[in-house]
């Protein structure tokens, strides 16, 4: 009897062992395939409502907007605010340089130009997408843009563009007459820039002329007119900066651009891109140094320029032009670079007050 029971127990253990091994192999296979495992929480796929994670990113804000509004917000690129930053930052540099020694930049002007940057960048993107709608359908990165995807018609795009330009005009009319005329002069660049990629391998230069107009406009809005000794080298430095970051950006689309016949500095420079970018960086830093000399900047400004030089060197040295995701990361890092320049201008301007006070106290001691 005991022998029969022992044999039964042994057979039971063999069955359990075989089952455990089979289940272990199935579990390992499931893990390799990325399947959810028992005991690991997974979001419910049931019909009930799913809670959205709270996010303050620009893309999340656009996605949470009313659905009929979303294509227009994407047309303005509000889900990708890096372009607005790159348009706005040269304005802030100019406004900061125009501030009185020892003072912060004019907050009213900064807010006006911030609003104008959002509107004009949106208008520029609308114009660009209207011109490029047939090309955008052939490029992987741009195929889902609202006009190319058919979410917004050309007629509605015109109406939307008119609304943006009208609001931007309202911002411009808050400035002095000199600045109104100067700002209006940039509209030709805004309209024609998107065509340059069909004509020349240097469309990034045309973008630089357009995007850095605020380097002229910011100073004139504060001072009433442009000072060529400060504004022109500042404008030139911004153009060099645009050649750097937009060449990096263009490397994302170089294969598609070559296939459909569009031109860019990325296609012009090829494997010599890093040499060209290094040259643009030297020119940018040289022009910013001249700005500092002509505007009487102080130690914090030149310290910031050293940090900008290090940022550019790291950006160019580590750039992999054959990896679109790395090009995007390097491109977006230029917001940090622009903020470093702004910080240097603000701190350098505040430092002027201390320097002036030290000179006055020294002169008074000499007189006594």
Automatic annotation (TrEMBL):
The name this protein goes by in its record: 4-hydroxybenzoate polyprenyltransferase, mitochondrial
Family, per entry: Belongs to the UbiA prenyltransferase family.
Function description: Catalyzes the prenylation of para-hydroxybenzoate (PHB) with an all-trans polyprenyl group. Mediates the second step in the final reaction sequence of coenzyme Q (CoQ) biosynthesis, which is the condensation of the polyisoprenoid side chain with PHB, generating the first membrane-bound Q intermediate.
Pathway participation: Cofactor biosynthesis; ubiquinone biosynthesis
Transmembrane segments: 175-193, 273-293, 331-351
Keyword Transferase: yes
Reaction equation(s) it catalyzes: all-trans-decaprenyl diphosphate + 4-hydroxybenzoate = 4-hydroxy-3-(all-trans-decaprenyl)benzoate + diphosphate; all-trans-nonaprenyl diphosphate + 4-hydroxybenzoate = 4-hydroxy-3-(all-trans-nonaprenyl)benzoate + diphosphate; an all-trans-polyprenyl diphosphate + 4-hydroxybenzoate = a 4-hydroxy-3-(all-trans-polyprenyl)benzoate + diphosphate
Species in which this protein is naturally found: Odobenus rosmarus divergens
Molecular-function annotations in GO: 4-hydroxybenzoate polyprenyltransferase activity
EC number: 2.5.1.39
Alphabetical list of NCBIfam families matching this protein: ubiA_proteo
Bilayer disposition of the protein: Multi-pass membrane protein
Gene3D superfamilies: UbiA prenyltransferase
Obligatory cofactor(s): Mg(2+)
Pfam family name, one: UbiA
Domain of life of the organism encoding this protein: Eukaryota
Gene: COQ2
PANTHER family (alphabetical): 4-HYDROXYBENZOATE POLYPRENYLTRANSFERASE, MITOCHONDRIAL (PTHR11048:SF28), PRENYLTRANSFERASES (PTHR11048)
Family matches, as InterPro entries: HB_polyprenyltransferase-like, Prenyltransferase, UbiA_prenyltransferase, UbiA_prenylTrfase_CS, UbiA_sf
Enzyme class (EC, first level): transferase
